[in-house]
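**User:** Everyone, produce a chain:

**Assistant:**
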Amino acid sequence: MLDSSENLELPPIPSKRYFTIGEVSELCAVKPHVLRYWEQEFPQLKPVKRRGNRRYYQRHDVVLIRQIRALLYVEGFTISGARNKLAIDNPAPLDGDRQHAVKALIQELEDVLRMLKGS
């Protein structure tokens, strides 16, 4: 799996909004071409793309990449096994659930606005 030189503790994630693929590569001890491959294999991993398709990862992407790395390299999962494990541990909300949650939030905000205008 990992040789002992790669089994070192990963560096802390700096507090910034966006990271380039090179920075993420260093933070996660994974080569850039592997990160690009994982984007195809894990639907949860979607970095922002700007200026000529340059990738910009956010903090949650870096955390997810570290989870994927641990599943594959430390725990010995296959790609499909890791994909299934992440889907079970972090289920994505259904579109209907998302719409319902947004509508409920809008209603609550309108209620608060009405209360504030009434004061």
